[in-house]
Amino acid sequence: MCPPPAVTCDENNHVAVVWRNLTVYKPMDLLDGFLVKSMSHKCRKAILRNISGVFRFHDLSAIMGPSGAGKTTLLQCLFGTWSGRYKGKIYRNPLANKASFITQKEEDHLFPCLSVIESIFYASRLKGAQNESKVVEELIDQLDLRNCRHTLVHSCSGGQRKRLVIAQELASEVKPKILFIDEPTSGLDSNVSFTVLTQLQKLCMAHGMAIIATIHQPSYKILKLFDQLYVLSRAGRCLYQGRPEVLRSYLSQFQVNCPNGHNPADVIIDAAEMLKVRLLEESSAKLIEFEMDSIDTSSMSEVEAMRENRNHLSLRHMMYLLRRSFLHGTCREPLWLFIRVGLHVFVALLLSMLYDGNIGVDNGCLRVNSAGYYYRPNCTEQVPLSRLREESNIDRNISYLFFNLLFLMFAALMPTVLTFPSEIKIFMNEHRNGWYSTASYYMAKTLTEFWIQLILPYLYSLFTYWTTSQIGLNSFIDAIPFTAGSSRFNNFVSISILASYIAQGVGFFIGAIFTTNFNISIFVATVIMLFNFLFSGFFVRSNSMGRAQFITYLSFIRFAFEAILLTIYGQNRCHPSEPGSLSGSRLTNNSAISSETTSDSEYNNVISVVMFKFELNDKDYSTHFTALALHLILWRLITFFILYFKVNPDINLRAPNLSCLSCLSPRKIFSAKCCLYFSTLVIVISLAFIIFSVYYLITE
């Protein structure tokens, strides 16, 4: 154990964070969690082993050590976001109730198409600054960003981006009292690293904050900028804590020479493996007496209790998140929008060339005589070639309608899967630092994507509906949505838009789960969509699936596809006054249609062949629309809960176990664990409701 120097009671208010006898264990994956659920702490791999320490306000402190020593792990534990198990206590000064964590990758904090001043401005508004202009200008001067204030982030240098991330976290009237920074010099040369750390040193003095940074192996010039060093061995034990200027004399006590002109940081890092046993064995008895009894932790708060985002759904946060997202995603990054628009235009034009402009004219109606059989004037009658073409056109039209759904869903799914994970990383960092709530972000994100998934499917559907001569679109008035025009076209567009929203929701779901693995997210998205297409009823009719038919109730594409067929070929299209384009077509005797099996879809001996093939009824439209709406709500809710539990610091293995019955207590009902129980219950009930309600409505 390597405790810090003793602290007097008068200095207790200067202590920012204290940890005692901290042992941190490697997080277990899901399989390990089942296999070693009852495993003792001794059997689990420890990253940090029984370490203690203290950091103070007004100090620029460094956590040093070789790769794999646990520097970032210690930083996450002190901040309160470590998701694994640990033993020991971590306390923070109540004055430091505001703290921020900056990760190693600045791209996880910055939108590349915003300018420097815009990034700081939106950060100040989201963090509740009243006089944002003053805050922004002060930070630009303090962090030497004036020369690049109007430069887009992707054009800034590495040092400028590092300082911009720091400026964002300080963009409020009430500055965070502790700033945790993971590798602030990563990827920077020595001169830029010196500039960044000099700015951090000035911030410590100007705002009285504690800045704690991890650093691998600094130069001696950079080492002297730090007020405190905390050195870890590769085994996760403390080798040294104290001021940099004392490090040389400390090493000499253990016969580790550091000649003048040599960097003591290099010496202690190179000797870490050699020292990890000998140094601890020789100095443990001496260091144990320096336990931190002089620090009064009774007035301090445990880190776990403090790491809570207390923001709630806020219209102000939603407004600024909407503005920022629109500015970044649409105005500053038009290429992505142009590609999406161009793809819809290209596919629409391609379909107009591939498919005959009259494939939507044929109604697919069949005249049935009073005996309940299809009308055949003469069994030996030759079938005109035109009638065979009409029958072929109906099959082609069904294929066209199915491809429309396929394209619209993939056009909504893939952009979301490609872009959402990178944005989630920014959201997680901002939420963790207390900028806004999960609900505010998710509502703003949903509204941001709402308009493009409304306009593009509508224009695409309008063009393809018109070029294939589908029924009901006779004038410009009919194309105006939700007017007294064509109800068929309105229903067609509504289903198309709803299907694209569901596919987008699936993309949000996949992106929220596989935030860091792009390849897996693409694979899972493809598998989910292929599953839905397989059970859509297009390749294999639902009534031919046997025992697997119930799986089709989970396929939202089935409900969308059948709703489209009901829109085009249902709604009394086969009226007795219509002669029926297939009224004289020859079919085999085995395909004769009984009136007893088609009474729901025939009107005075005229039935729809399409509705008969797919076993559809006009009353099914409302059922299918309801099922699609339930799918939309369910996918969005699941994504919200995934995001909520990803960023909620109380959902981890350290939180106390709560039984379901204990969640009935008014004092615990809103705890994170209880929210997990309730949300899981809601998801399970929703899935069951979709399956059984749709099954009941269809069977009725």
TrEMBL record:
Keywords: ATP-binding, Membrane, Nucleotide-binding, Transmembrane, Transmembrane helix, Transport
Superkingdom in the source lineage: Eukaryota
Parts forming coiled coils: none
Transmembrane segments: 335-355, 398-418, 450-468, 489-514, 520-539, 551-569, 621-645, 674-698
Assigned GO CC terms: plasma membrane
Record localization: Membrane
Topology class, membrane: Multi-pass membrane protein
GO MF, one example: ABC-type transporter activity
All residue ranges annotated as the ABC transporter domain in the record: 28-259
Family classification: Belongs to the ABC transporter superfamily. ABCG family. Eye pigment precursor importer (TC 3.A.1.204) subfamily.
PANTHER family per record: ABC TRANSPORTER EXPRESSED IN TRACHEA, ISOFORM A (PTHR48041:SF78), ABC TRANSPORTER G FAMILY MEMBER 28 (PTHR48041)
Protein name: ABC transporter domain-containing protein
The organism of origin for this protein: Tetranychus urticae
